[in-house]
Protein 1
Amino acid sequence: MEQTFIMIKPDGVQRGLVGEIISRFEKKGFYLKAMKLITVERAFAEKHYEDLSSKPFFAGLVEYIISGPVVAMVWEGKNVVLTGRKIIGATNPAESAPGTIRGDYAIMVGRNIIHGSDAVESARKEIALWFPEGVSEWQSSAHSWIYE
Ligand code: DAT
Ligand code: MG
């Protein structure tokens, strides 16, 4: 089954949105396979966002990500990468639909509270970067109630 990397950014942690965000992925039927609260160093944040290093907002983005603890997670399920992006909503909260996490809880693109991998390949890279120790192998006893 597919896995994705989801990170609640420092503003999501500071604003007390951790439980609400986790709840949305849990209630959907996705499985939590790894999770940690961690404050990352500058070089690590630069590595995570290396594809955006030429963007004018890169420096500010890195400052934001290292400004406090984040909650790093791995979620698993059928099509979890694409569906996770839909649950999160558009990058700019001004364009995120109501009902999405960013649409419901954020206003500015530079304070959009959550990250989600944009493709299966980037998810694989991000999970390896954030969880070099590996993820849990547990299986949900609700599986046959979620999948036919
Ligand atoms: P996403 O987080 O939706 O995958 P992205 O990978 O294009 O979006 O950009 C990563 C983060 O960078 C994004 O969540 C917020 C910030 N960002 C993107 N575009 C921006 C912009 N035009 N101005 C300021 N910050 C931006
Ligand atoms: Mg992205």
Note: The beta strands are 3-8, 31-38, 70-76, 114-116.
Protein 2
Amino acid sequence: MAIQRTFSIIKPDATERNLTGAVNAVIEKAGLRIIGQRRIKMTREQAERFYDVHKERPFFGELVDFMTSGPVVVQVLEGENAVKAYRDVMGATNPTEAADGTIRKLFAKSIGENSVHGSDSEENAAIEIAQFFSLADIVG
Ligand code: RTP
Ligand code: MG
């Protein structure tokens, strides 16, 4: 498998509890390299665009409220098979179903406030990275 990039967000429930470093430690221990990182406060427009695929879901309003409720850390991760590797280390969306040692098992509060986002395909990773990073801010 080739070296790949994926897009990550450390969500407001994690930044609020000062867990950015703890999440990054799990990411780096999994062999993923953080090659871009920025702390931002998402606007409603940014969050609505980012989660456009979920706009018909019942939790959409709650999700946008949550993602704009505090700072997030947006990241570009690089490594072997990075999209799947990061999904594996994140764990299941619902922390009660997440495997031991995963970020969501360790830190997530609930299915909504679940500490991290990771792209679900290489194609979406490229789209999501382009939404938040310019090329000059990614140093591989
Ligand atoms: P993500 O996109 O954040 O990496 O998470 P995911 O693929 O595991 O989950 P997805 O189905 O794409 O859902 C996106 C985010 O929406 C929130 N959610 N809330 N209340 C609910 O039932 C519910 N379901 C999903 C979570 O924050 C989830 O990560
Ligand atoms: Mg998703």
Note: The pocket of ribavirin triphosphate (ligand 1) is lined by residues 54, 59, 63, 93, 111-112, 114, 117-118, 120 (CB under 6 Å).
Protein 3
Amino acid sequence: EPLELCAFMRGIHSRMAPSFTEKKMALNLVCHGEVYIEADPVRFEQIIINLLDNARKYSEEGTAATMQVFKKNGHIHITVMDEGKGIPEEDQAWVFDRFYRVDKSRSKALGGSGLGLAIVKELVEAHGGKITVRSELGKGATFEIIL
Ligand code: ATP
Ligand code: MG
């Protein structure tokens, strides 16, 4: 069934904002007009929440995370961007693999299993989409879904 992405993302924004405020982080959303996609709302929300969990978990206080939705060349793009520690170039190709974690000891302290992004990738592909990451170490990470 068609899902209106801006309203959907506003819902996620209001549910997730308190956990960002609690960490003294800002959560922004940029989405204009109405953008319709074919998606399972429960699974699609799981995608975005996993990305937001990471954005919060791997960032410091005082930084912002931003979700953005836009159309380009007939495709719909959804980005989740943070200003956190970032992901080293050599690890970027592996972060979607099951149980892969960049810094084993630090990650252990933060909790989690290294499954989040593997699930995200599977769910994105089940929706006919692709997900990529780009990052500059120390400056943040951007995950981009293209539908
Ligand atoms: P889980 O999501 O299962 O609780 P996790 O967060 O460690 O555990 P993933 O979400 O799959 O697992 O992420 C894999 C690894 O990629 C993380 O351990 C972390 O090292 C790195 N990573 C993921 N997202 C970010 C991000 N936004 N900024 C920096 N590093 C990230
Ligand atoms: Mg995670």
Note: The chain has a mean pLDDT of 95.
Protein 4
Amino acid sequence: MTLTNSSLQTNGDADSKRTGSTDPNLQAWVDEIARLTEPDAIVWCDGSKREANELSKLLVASGQLIRLNPEWRPNSFLARTDPKDVARVEGRTFICSTDEADAGPTNNWAEPSAMRAELRGVFAGSMRGRTMYIVPFSMGPLGGPISQLGVEITDSPYVVLNMGIMTRMGETVLTMIEAGDPWVHTVHSVGYPLVDQSGITRPDVEWPCNDDKYIVQFPDTREVWSYGSGYGGNALLSKKSFALRIASVMGRDEGWLAEHMLLIKLISPEGGVFHVAAAFPSACGKTNLSMLRPTIPGWQVETIGDDIAWLRQGEDGRLWAINPEAGFFGVAPGTGETTNPTAVSTMWGNTIFTNVALRDDGDVWWEGLTDKAPEHLIDWQGKDWTPGSGRTAAHPNSRFTVAAAQCPSIADDWEAAGGVPIDAIVFGGRRATNVPLVAQARSWKHGVFMGATISSEKTAAADGIVGELRRDPFAMLPFCGYNMADYWGHWLKVGKELGTNAPAIFQVNWFRKGPDGNFIWPGFGENSRVLEWMIRRIEGTADAVDTPIGLLPAEDGLNLDGLDLSKEAVDQLFAIDQNSWLAECDLTEEYFDKFGDKVPPALRAELASVRYHLKD
Ligand code: GTP
Ligand code: MN
Ligand code: MN
């Protein structure tokens, strides 16, 4: 049975809302959290349009949401957060595995029972004076073979509204849980009770949160507890907490992959259909690439996902992938008609904006939406703003939340229960130096090495000199729910299972800079040229040259027709400097050493091979 998102949006009747569950585990858990947090009321969310309308009305009435001018942006809202609650808080994010070694050197670990006791302290009475919402959701199409269920308990109606866009949320999920489907437990509180222990009340604020924050994953029991933040990545627990941190552990145990990857369908001029999954660190262009409009004739790109992919070997032996989410939570600044027109048209209405600027006509604006800023705005902190204010009008991490179904480039089968078969996996970082525009891995192992060494320069390095590198292996540094080196081992194992069915692996870098300090490659829509080369490699019609760091396009192999790029610039895009690559290998070895014995020998061997060939 395949149900789509829209089939969940029944016209729920508020009077007929359920008051409990027949599933004893679910009911006991809800009772336990209610006893701990002491909310005034409990609401079981049905996922209906009516419910969403009532919640948004409530938030507009209390001043916690601003309704945008429906003439420009129907059924859309602006939320402004507390200036101290604007991004994920990695320093307060914990992986509480039983064994500390399972969290590894890249995660904060805390002993699970000590953390549970601490959480009981902060959650005690944390929902006093508030309503507790029970939000049942499915990651992936309902009942799909790769999909998983979850329930989030939250005291934030803003979170409920966002979850209704980002997941398939509502009554049907409860029915599935009651029929015995497993589910992940997640609890969230903004940590701003309206009544204190002695019964004294205080008024609510525009954005309730707490200076003390906890984003806690218990991978062994598949549980998440989040306290003190209302912001996206910390509060929408379906996303980074479940779909990446908890799901990566489920994947390790069950033989699949939960990845920080976009998913696209590519259609060649000959009508060939290919699917590509790509991992880039946050703010490195996933949402952009997922909605790319090709500049080369005859090629089409369709969107399947922009942030997370779950991948699993299918019965045919190939790797299949779904987008577990139902919406986009995208970065607003830099999203405009020239860079990502598809995203701009996706947000025509039914969109929640967080921390962007408000125009005098009741619409929204952010840096990069248009070339010229309006003469006057209310900035993300609610203050008057003019182009001369000397500060940005929108917060750099301001976001839009919108249903994927509204995306004009969404693929027809983006909700296919079994997913789509993956032809290519791409890894990319933000590198001013060293890393070429595109390289193909010689093998799955070499591809895993490329994924494990994703990084960005910490400082603006001069061309040819490697600065200190900010490592973000597989773009999963803040999201891997277990030891990163074990995760590399898991990828190697999955590759072994896939054997000759494994997708090809590539590395890309849109961000190489020339001696003048500017990006050499025009990027955005022009990235379709790089996708074309990948597909031609997979088809076996494009030549490559073997270099110490991978297979690069042969002379004239990359389609540069109609592009104004000098021969010199192209050479810079693909230049491999022996000395700086040897220096980079030393840094990679130092990085691997942090993981000690856990580093798979195959990755050490790949490093040795790169070094050997560089010295050739
Ligand atoms: P998260 O949603 O946080 O995981 O990040 P993301 O990977 O989706 O990042 P997003 O697509 O929002 O990246 C935005 C940034 O990358 C903006 O600054 C864009 O201008 C820049 N960007 C995206 N594609 C390109 C490109 O091809 N070339 C250049 N130079 N910049 C790009
Ligand atoms: Mn992301
Ligand atoms: Mn994104």
Note: The pocket of manganese (II) ion (ligand 3) is lined by residues 286-287, 306-307, 330-331 (CB under 6 Å).
